[in-house]
Amino acid sequence: MIYDVVVVGAGSNGATAAYFLAKRGFKTMLLEVSREPGSKCHGATEYAPTTFHGKSRPELAELMKKVIKNIPHLHPGDLGRGGFHYYVNRENRVVFKFHTEAPGDGWKETYGLNNPDFVSGLVEESVKAGVTLKTGTSVVNVLRSKGKINGVITDRGEEIKARLTIAADGRISRIAKKIGLLKKWEATRCWYQYGETWKFRSEEEMFEYVDYGRHIFFGSTITPPYHWQACTLTLRPGGIVTVNAPTSWTPVSDVLKAKKNPRNVYMRNLYNLMEVKRMLKPCKGFPDRPIQRQSTFMPGPPLQKPYMDGLIICGDAGGVGGICGQGYIAANYVAPLLEKGDLSEEALAGYKTARLLRGVELKSEHDEVSPTMLYFWTRGAGFGEYHGCSVDEMVENMRIAASPFILGAPRPDKVGEFGYVELGSWIIATKINYILTLYSPFLRSPNIFPRILKWVQKNQESFNKNKVFDHPF
Amino acid sequence: MGHSIATEESFIKINATRCNGCGNCIIVCGGEVFEMKRKKARVARLENCLECGNCEVACVRDAITFQIPRGGKGISYRYG
Questions:
Q1: Contacts of A182 (CB under 8 A, 6+ apart)
Q2: Taking CB atoms and an 8 Å limit, are A33 and B71 in contact across chains?
Q3: pTM score > 0.80 for this model?
Q4: What ipTM does this complex have?
Q5: Which CATH number fits domain A2-43+116-182+303-355: 3.40.1550.10, 3.60.10.10, 3.10.180.10, 3.50.50.60?
Q6: Does A135 touch chain B (CB under 8 A)?
Q7: What proportion of chain A, given as a percentage, has pLDDT over 90?
Q8: Which element (helix H / strand E) includes A30?
């Protein structure tokens, strides 16, 4: 049997691609390495179908809502986003707010979900839509004939033939490496994230301790910085708390150069804070053993060539991340080509730009993960439009979120060189970047951060006078 | 809750002749999987592996090969 499409990897993007292709009537096979779909996904995310996709991809927003309806989540609009942020006001006092008090209605339809739950629900939906799912199967190689890829070989030696292969096998993509589209991930361009997950004895108990948590963590109300940049403590269904360390903006190469892993220092200092201790004390295993550790790469840099004759690389595997969005884009891009029957390299080449959000043109791989590009990404995601705020307001919001770092508000010490300082300076850099776009190549240099920090410290007084740290809400 | 299912063989392979003992894998690993023995890295606690692939990226000599373990093995996350 020859399938129209074989999708490797039943993650959020793979399953979404499979779902929409099956909906459009193509015979689709979905392969997954784990026995239970979703069980290789860790952590939790804020799912905001309306904010992200409501206007541009209503079909996808509908699918996500359908999935979310069937799985446990914290009530939207209450602790939907489940995080906290704080800022420093004019009197230099730290003020705390919930995420969900953000302007606009977008976050009211935001749900804090555990990723495994969401992905398994999504895979279920795609099976209902007619996808053939095969779990416990890893792909060892692709099938080729006459230079064209026409399927995959599994670890049991089974050959699965398909007209098109979509490789959505995650950040460390074996397929991309096997077929030579990827030589090696370069340590200078790799960012990673480290987090820990704790569990309260019950959800009720978690809410009892929420007040302690307010004193410590923040995240911006409008991205960036999103939770992977900032340290966040987020509450999840089932009394689960995830703690993410702000190491994700440190390239692996910098960590190696320093000969130490900042997350160790960070976590140790974090759990020594009184407020954290009080909040996490009723968690199982505190402070020695979280129920889960997670360590992962952030997607990027995007592969310069995410396509081959009869194959495309989708989502994190191709270095462009996103929850479901990339799968949807891939499905939409290949559907007309499948109908026409033209799956040559030339026809699939357009996927390279189609996968990116509007208005972004790739110059080099490095561009894509620079602050400038991330900033434009979020613009592309329609945050500004959705919240009805200007670019300036957006950047302002980002800066406010980072101000505690810069002004020395309570924080775990001695992580400055990687975590806080870099983050804060980065946001300032983005602001300057926006004003002086001419200097953007210059701002990409890592040496700029200490200099910007100095500038901020020097002008701290005038910031306070000018009410710069007054939060808009 | 994350728990690890024992695998019959290691899915992280270290080429001992290539390894120069720089210790990069130990620095980046979030699960303390590696340890140094006679100036060579070795996999000491495979069951801790979080399957992120950091080690392969960090290895300057390309001595480490990381492969997501075969179906039904390795880490499995479950909450609630």
A1: A173, A176, A303
A2: yes
A3: no
A4: 0.84
A5: 3.50.50.60
A6: yes
A7: 23
A8: strand A28-31
